[in-house]
Each structure stands twice: as C-alpha cells, then as structure tokens.
Predict the 3D structure of the following.
Amino acid sequence: LVDPTRSLLTGATSTRLFGRLSYDVSDNVNVFVEGSYAKNKTALTNAVHFAVFLPLSGNPYLANAGVTYGPGADGLPLGVILFATPEFGTPSAVTGSDAWSVKAGLNGDLGSGWKFSTTYVHGEVKQNLTSREFNMQHLYASLDAVTPAGGGAPVCYVSTLAANPLPGCLPYNPFGANRNANMAGLNNWLFANSISDVINKMDVFSASINGSPFDLPAGPVSVSLSAEYRKNSLVRSSNSDPAVPIDTLGGAIRGTVFNTRFGINNTGLISGSNNVKEAGIEVLAPITSAQSAI
C-alpha cells in the first residue's frame, strides 16, 4: 500500500468547459465566437518539515538534551544543525491553475473568387502555489531560547529585549520529539503560507484575404495576403521573493543560516512582455499545365 504522506500520487480535480456560437450574417459572411475554460487543483504532500539553524550557547534546551559547551558568553554559535520533525504533521501544498480563452472571427466571400478571414484571440492562464511552511523569522526567533533573568521557563531571546520587536514569540525545543507542550500555539506561530501567482496573457489578431486577380494561359494566379499581431505578457508575484531577506529586526533574530522568508518555496518576481508583428504574401502562378498549350 502507498503511504499517502510519502507519495506524489495525490488527489486532483479538473473542470473543462467549451462553447461555440456561429451565425451567418448573410449568404457570404459568417461570424463566430467560442470560449473555453479549464480549472485544475492538486494537493501535494512532501516528506517532513526541516530547517537548518545555529544553536546558541545559553539555550536551556541544549543542556536538557545533554549538550554541553565550554565557557564563554551566551549567544555564541555552536555549529550548524539540520533537524527534521514530524511533530507538525505532513507538509502540504496546493497547486492550481485557471485558464480561459475567447476567440472571435469573421469569415466571408467577397465574390469573384476572393475570400477573407479575421480572427481575434485572448487567453489567460493563472497559476498558484500555496505551501504551508516554516516562517523562518518566527522559527529562528523561537529556536533562540534563553532563561529569563529571574529564572523560570525558557523564553525567546527577542522577548527579553526592552522593545520586544516580535511580540507573541513562543520558544521551541527541537531536541527530541514530544518536548513541546503548546503544539497548537507553535503550529500557529511557526507556520505561514508561501504563496506565488503567475499570470500569463496572450492576445492575437490575424487577418487574411485570398483570391485570383487574373489568369495565365496555364491557369489562374492565386494570391494570399496575411497579417498577424501577437502580444504575450507574464507576471509572477509572491510573498517569498528570495531577493528580499528575512528581517532580523536589527539583530534581534539570531542563529540564522538562510536568509529566505520560508523554508522551502521562495519564488522570485518576474514581469515581462513581448510582441510580434508579421505580414506575408504568397503567390501561386502556374507556368504550365496539361490543358494549356505551354
């Protein structure tokens, strides 16, 4: 059996819609419009929550875990630790996309063998990723536990500062399972949603006309004129741009290793567009044929 907490095979939902209308304005002209819509949503599960941090001397949880260190001022880094914990459940993420397009056009017969066609298309695709992960600012603050000046239960280092730049901080003990009584509070404090959105838009306008202006001895000359304009744009936004480091609150957040806001998904910002203009002409001129004298 597949363990759903360790599998990439998860549930997905999908919706598809399509419609088309066509109307003959006259015997020679037809107008049409069609639209489509697609929606997808997939829930994903990863392995376990993990993080890398610098445990600092003076952390009471180190002593409780049997870790000793030499003399020196509190707050000195003691080395890098990678820890993973299933205490907070299975990491989860949801990806989704919404795509829609509209196409409208006009086709007609101008007579004397000439035909025309015009088409306009607009389409948009929006993709979203929402991933529940460690809020690294809160996590580093919670991992930097100290014993308050008057003694007692461990508290966050930031909570001992006069200005207390991060109210509500809860100390977290990562050195062993089931060592934290307030798991519900830690769940709310340590985690946040890493969110990124991508919007891709496309506009296309095309027109063509074709017919036969005259005949050669071997047959009619065919001419086709066409033009097209395309514009594409893409914008990606997120609340986890890796170019923006976490705010250490003037050094109040200690023991940091990585500067990204979230533990796993940190998505950069993108904004760009381009456009293409095309025009073409095709001529088919028969030189000879079985029916001609040439």
